[in-house]
Amino acid sequence: MVKIDLHTHSTRSDGLDSPTQLMENAAKAGIEIIALTDHDTVSGWDEGRSSAAKLGLGFVPGIEVTSVSDVTRNEKTYRISVHLLAYLPDPDHQALEVVLDDTVATREARGRAIVEKLAEQIPITWEMVLDHLDKGATIGRPAIADTLVTMGLVADRSAAFDYYLSTDGPFYVSHSAVSTIDAIGLIRQAGGVPVIAHPLKGVGPDTDPEDLPIAHFEEMIQAGLQGVEVYHRDVPETARKWLLDLADKHNLVVTGSSDYHGLEGKPNRLGENTTSQEMLDRIIELGTGTKPSL
Ligand code: AMP
Ligand code: FE
Ligand code: FE
Ligand code: ZN
Question: pTM of the predicted model, to two decimals?
């Protein structure tokens, strides 16, 4: 069986391996085909593709697109951030490029806002955060986490997310980004295959499947969603059967991947979840924006 991992990050966003180091580690882990899916950027593709080729790995270009959705539960509306994996989109598609550039710029403003809040209590500066980022890399909370580690305030990224960077913590600033429905449309226009990343990540083990947001999923599918990342460590068991039934009903692609961010970035290990060759073949058939290197 070919080992296929379709969700990984490099230093072009919040991973800790450069695209080349990522490919080297993937080869060591026995991966045969890998997708590089940095947050909101294609800037790692060229290096990733050529390093993969040197190591004899297949390369599938992707992006993890940040989007936001408003979902209603118990008559209250919440704004949630939805990550969409886009496989094989045209990297030169104008409208998609504009949206990604916008998100990257907004992420920087948001990062600065978080740091400003933190600076009221700890001696952190934006320059310190920039020291933990490659030039032009997509900014996210992990770079701030790395700064807190260097400052000796927390042991690792996870510990930083437990308090300083927690979504319900005092320093949090939410994302603003393209709506999920618009993002799905754009990815399709760019010839890409939109697959929802780690769907239903926050759902607790006791959730009644009747309470899962079926209307939101039906809406995304209507808009052109083509796949669901069912096999991911953050997708709870309660959600998997529900997602598989949904995939069955709408003939969606089902993927599994690691969401690797580097050895120290997250506990996620390359190849801990994988995608079948059959599903990758379907992605390649559906994706018309750019070619994989296999
Ligand atoms: P942001 O993009 O700024 O909202 O930050 C979210 C990113 O932080 C995700 O893409 C993950 O890579 C990372 N992240 C979230 N929670 C944790 C955690 N507990 N430990 C390490 N990294 C995390
Ligand atoms: Fe990430
Ligand atoms: Fe994600
Ligand atoms: Zn990811």
Answer: 0.97
Q: State if residue 261 touches ligand 1 by the CB under 6 angstroms criterion.
A: yes
Beta strands (DSSP E) in 111-252 are: 193-196, 227-231
Question: How far is 51 from 59, CA to CA, in rounded Å?
Answer: 9
Residue appearing with tokens 């799905």: 184
User: Of all atoms in ligand 1, which is nearest to the CA of residue 175?
Assistant: 4
Buried b (16+ CB within 10 A) or exposed e, 207-223: eeeeebbeebbebbbeb
CA-to-CA separations, 115 to 161, 165, 209, in angstroms, rounded: 14, 10, 38
Distance, CA of 160 to CA of 118 (rounded, Å): 12
CA distance 58 to 4: 9
Q: Which atom of ligand 1 is nearest to the CA of 110?
A: 3
For residue range 80-118, list pLDDT tens digits in order.
Answer: 899 999 999 999 999 999 999 999 999 999 999 999 999
Rounded Cα distance between 62 and 31, Å, is 17
d(CA 98, CA 92): 10
141-189 pLDDT tens trace: 999 999 999 999 999 999 999 999 999 999 999 999 999 999 999 999 9
Domains of the chain: 4-286 (3.20.20.140)
